[in-house]
Specification:
The protein is α+β, with helices and mostly antiparallel strands and 154 residues long. It folds into two domains: 66 residues, no CATH class; 59 residues, no CATH class. It is built from six helices and five strands, in the order E-E-E-E-E-H-H-H-H-H-H. Strand 2 and strand 3 form a beta hairpin. The longest helix has 20 residues. It is globular, with a radius of gyration of 17 Å. Bound molecules: zinc ion. Zinc ion binds next to strand 4, helix 1 and helix 2.
């Protein structure tokens, strides 16, 4: 996959003709805190564009033709909204602080356990962990790993 970072969205958004539900969730990577979505390619029929969202920084990447040419694309404009509508993201947003902590801790443990055992990390665990990290960042304005490191250092 060729990914390219892009500038902020153009003022005249191509997203006028699209909505977040036009993007299909693919997966969440707990090691990079990136979620991936896809959409059918208009320029390459039968192929799909892959758009990525870093849920901690808000950075987006896309491999579509418009993005490769340095133009904004609707995929990147709408991927945050698509993620905001994902059930795992909505659930994490509704957790109490204690529930959020417990959910993130459990998902983190399950991901680490699977890797230690050389098992495949369950997609649901990776998704729950990424959602919990994103919600933690939203609530406390700090990345969970940075907060953990500060707590350990104190
Ligand atoms: Zn794109």
């Amino acid at each position: 996959m060729v990914a390219q970072a892009t500038a902020p969205a153009h003022p005249i958004a191509s997203s006028l003709w699209h909505e977040p539900n036009d993007l299909t969730f693919i997966d969440a990577d707990d090691r990079t805190n990136i979620v991936h979505y896809s959409a059918p390619s208009q320029s390459r029929p039968g192929d799909a564009n892959i758009v990525a969202l870093d849920i901690l920084s808000g950075s987006t990447f896309c491999n579509c033709k418009a993005s490769e040419c340095g133009k904004g694309c609707w995929h990147q404009e709408l991927v945050q909204a698509a993620w905001d509508g994902h059930p795992a993201r909505i659930l994490a947003a509704r957790y109490s602080d204690a529930q959020l902590h417990a959910s993130g801790k459990k998902a983190s443990h399950m991901c680490a356990w699977a890797r230690h055992r050389r098992f495949r990390v369950l997609p649901a665990d990776a998704l729950a962990l990424v959602a919990a990290r994103g919600e933690y960042k939203r609530r406390y304005r700090v990345a969970p790993d940075a907060a953990h490191a500060a707590h350990v250092a104190a």
